[in-house]
Design a protein that fits this description.
Blueprint lengths: L1 E2 L5 E2 L16 H13 L9 H39 L9 E2 L5 E2 H17 L1 H4 L1
Antiparallel strand pairs: 1-2, 3-4
Length: 128
């Protein structure tokens, strides 16, 4: 959920990506800054004793165990989705030409549809 200027919650889907936050930065620049801040995670200096140890273990597990495993699974997921798309590229030269569809081959039209469905399955990064 995002927030409107008056403090009410709104779904993130309704957030305007072209919206200016008054600082002259694009939403992509804000996301990049947030990503860089996340990379700078460290155990707070004011944490002591067991609290410090727990935060250090949590940070280690998050940065060096969970994140690489999650990234690996995302890579495998995308490979399973897009390797068939790459493997079926030769289909674009098959089939008869369809006059009503800009004289494209039937195989080309099928492959374009397959590509679009695969991008939709790939998630938000591929839909745009």
């Amino acid at each position: 959920m995002g927030y409107t200027p008056n403090g009410r919650q709104r779904p993130l889907e309704s957030h305007n990506l072209e919206e200016d936050n008054g600082d002259g930065k694009t939403p992509e620049e804000h996301m990049l800054e947030a990503s860089r801040e996340e990379l700078k995670k460290e155990v707070p200096e004011d944490a002591h004793g067991l609290s410090r140890a727990w935060k250090a273990v949590y940070l280690f597990l998050d940065l060096y165990i969970y994140e690489p495993i999650a990234t690996g699974f995302r890579f495998l997921h995308l490979a399973v989705i897009f390797l068939p798309v790459i493997a079926t590229i030769p289909v674009i030269w098959l089939g008869r030409r369809i006059k009503e569809r800009n004289d494209e081959r039937a195989g080309t039209l099928w492959w374009y549809n397959f590509l679009v469905r695969s991008m939709e399955r790939g998630g938000p990064a591929f839909i745009k």
